[in-house]
Amino acid sequence: MALSLPQEINALIQQLQAQQYASVVQRARQLLAQFPREFILHHVLALALDQSQQFAEASLAYAQALKLQPNNVELWFNHAIVLTHLNQLTEAEQAYRKAITLNPQFFEAHGNLGTLLQKQGRLEEAISSYQTGLRIQPQDARGHFNLGTAYRDQGQLQEAVRSYQRAIELFPNYTDAYNNLGETWRDQGDMTLAVQHYQQALQRNPEHAGANYNMGEFLYLAKRYEEAIPYFQRSQLDDWQSRVLYCLYQAEKFADFKQLRAEVIAQGPHTAPFIATLSSHYSINHGETDPYQFCANGLDFVYHRRLPELAPGSSLLAELLENIAQTDIAERKQARLTNGKQSAGNLFKRPEAAFRTLGELVKREFSLYQQHFQQAQCALITHFPAELEFTSSWYVNMQKGGHLDAHIHEIGWISGAVYLAMPETADPKEGAFEYGTHGDAYPKLHDDFPSRFIKPGIGDIVLFPSSLFHRTIPFHAEANRICVAFDLKPASHLQTAHSQY
Known InterPro entries for this protein (predicted)? Predict the structure, then answer.
């Protein structure tokens, strides 16, 4: 005996609750062929496709359901989440705003809209959205956590601390909040509090990827390399293999290093700049050909030119210098930096128009960089990302005697700096940008590690593979040396900085 439509719908809902998504999709589509205007069938189909991560088809189903019930707040909210997964951010924002218009007290919609705005670097708007949600529901731990991530991106570290602490008060087992709070204390140079909070996260979840990674990073910076390795291995996060290789190399476990490097090389393309740094150093140290071909000779892939928009006397240059002097941006403690200040947060995500304009200029130069080296047959160019995003951006303001020790940017693809103020010196090397193949106290078996230098002028940009060591040579002039530095890496549409409802 055939089931009636209400019976069919009840059966679909039961299957949906039992997570039998494939069956729901198949039967809902069959029924929609007979009953194309039955709202609940479109809704159930959308939910099943959504839960099975068939986001493009789920979006179409939500759109059909919304044609039948255009004032359904839940549908607009769910459709916005799916559109975010599809990286259709403008449409997702419109959907969240429609849900909020229909129900201004929908605090989850305010929260998710905040994450969407934050992802686009619209930090002031994101903070406002989070705060609106928290006025509606002040006991929302996720809202306080998300607000903390936006404050941290903005360089407002004390506000971030307070937000994370409030999230923990409301949800004492909030491991992500403990971990992020630890990172924020680290940014302020308080490693004791940072480690305490990493450990709090790990006590609650020993497998927490971020806390394991951060503990590994703390231990390797403390030169406790062999202790750091198991933390990185448990994290399986981002460049954890690079970090393990670093620990093995710094501990002079050369045989173990070479074995793990061979395993990593066998896994796929040579696209990890940090591994490129280590492999190059090992190969130079041991007089061998480097088998990791991120770029054959990084010294030949440095790009230097003057930006006409930043010529001395230009309005953009003046505005950038004024913003750096006047804007309230917290300092990020940097052990390698002497006689200078490094800003916290992500400068190009800040609301000031000059910083955003500079970010767009830098992106233009990255395209020109790729074109300039397009004939090169190495992973740096052949696997050059189709879309790049700023991992980080910050200013460094040095005074007389200022310098920055040799280091690399482990989480970039291409790194660089734009120079806004440079001291005049008789010695052409004072205050110069030096790049090379040795730094960070890597173990040396000899001193034959090549390096070169550039003395940038005001308005110059220098771009280089993130695998290269670089440093600022000390200068002794009574003047400031100001640059905006940055890392770009392959773009990721994953949302990892915040929680979504």
Answer: CHP02466 (IPR012668), TMTC_O-mannosyl-trnsfr (IPR052943), TPR-like_helical_dom_sf (IPR011990), TPR_rpt (IPR019734)
pTM: 0.79
Could you tell me if 479 and 422 lie in one domain? yes
Q: Give the closest residue to 347 by CA, choosing from 338, 336, 363, 358.
A: 358
pLDDT digits (tens, 9 = 90+) for 442-481: 999 999 999 999 999 999 999 999 999 999 999 999 999 9
Q: Are residues 130 and 228 in the same domain?
A: no
Give the pair of three-digit tokens for residue 198: 């990493």
User: What is the tens place of the pLDDT at every residue in 142-197?
Assistant: 999 999 999 999 889 999 999 999 999 999 999 999 999 999 999 998 999 999 99
- Measured CA to CA, the distance from residue 455 to residue 68 in angstroms comes to 65
Structure tokens at 7: 């019976």
Domain assignment present for residue 196? The answer is: no
- Tell me the C-alpha distance between 483 and 332, whole Å: 15
Name, in order, each residue with C-beta under 8 angstroms of 224's C-beta and a sequence gap of 6 or more: none
Give the CA dihedral 472, 473, 475, 481, nearest 10 degrees: -20
Closest CA to 276 of 383, 396, 366, 403: 383
State the DSSP string of 331-399.
BPP-TTEEEEEEB-S-GGGSS-HHHHHHHHHHHHHHHHHHHHTTT--SHHHHT--SSEEEEEEEEEEEE
- The answer to whether position 18 is within a domain reads yes
In a domain, 282, yes or no: no
Question: How many whole angstroms separate alpha carbon 103 and alpha carbon 33?
Answer: 33
Distance CA 233, CA 226 (A): 12
- Own/partner contacts of 440-447, CB < 8 Å, gap of 24 or more, are 440/405, 440/406, 440/407, 440/408, 440/469, 441/250, 442/249, 442/250, 442/281, 443/249, 443/250, 443/252, 443/285, 444/285, 445/285, 445/286, 446/285
Provide the residue range defining the domain that includes 483: 298-490
Separation CA 491–CA 9 (nearest Å): 42
- Please indicate, yes or no, whether residues 128 and 223 belong to a single structural domain of this protein: no
Q: How many structural domains does the chain have?
A: 3
